Amino acid sequence: MAQEAHDVYGIDFRKDFIFIAQFSPATNAITSIAIQPFSDSTDDWWSKIKSEFREVVDNVDFKSRDVVCALPGEWAIIKKLMLDSDEEDVENALSWEISQQILGSLDDYACDHLKLASSLDNSVDNYLSVAYRCDSVKRLTDLMRQYNLNQIAADLDIFALINVYELNYPDESSVPAYLIYGDYDKILIVLAQKDVFIDFECSDFRYENSSAQECAAAIKQSKSIIARSNPQLSHDSLNTYLAGPVFSADEYVEAVLQEVPQAAILDPFKRINFHAQNISEEEKKKYSPQLAIAVGLAVRGGTE
Fold it and tell me: What pLDDT does 37 receive?
């Protein structure tokens, strides 16, 4: 007898919010949403997480204990690295390259590398390399165990963004598109199509010190860098989808829509059924750009 699929919860920890999406594989639907703004005024982020997550667990009626957590990009060192295409020991070469970007010993970090599809020069291969402090990953795992939650996977937030895009835009995802995640301290720009991670850039951006016009300019600059590395594509004709907390602010959305061709807010519920009764339609619209990661995590956990 086939085992019945359980509901899965995607948990996305941000700088000042926790977002949780419950996904039901049986109905292909998001059945509840939890949005927990931080009320703790301490500057220590982990102290905030522990305090606020306790309140989340008290208020969320977990139908199952299976969760998928995001590893926030701000926890990571994310770099695009190049190696000669004839490099024989790719793993060690990438580890050495990323070690030049971190403080301390590489042994203190968990690293992951993904080969990118783009390269102007056939003699060179490009890689997305990510390094996380092991203690940060362990803290997250220990926090889940503290509340008897089964962390079935952890994923980088930008991979969850790609996942929710492919699920909601199956026709569009067959051709390249830009996915942009605007966070409070950086903007991640990914060029991807279905099952192919083509290229990416990470733009330093401080939301509290920057205007909406500066946000749009940072996106255009990063897109131009990617365009130069991928001249085979007509970049102004590619769709651009926006997600992340920055794009919950109307003025930032308006600025980017005016300056960036083919831009639109990514809808995490375009093809995934939305049956959550615990938030209003107004809240859903307001927080949709920020819920994309949690939705992508939950659906990934429920479909694997």
Answer: 86
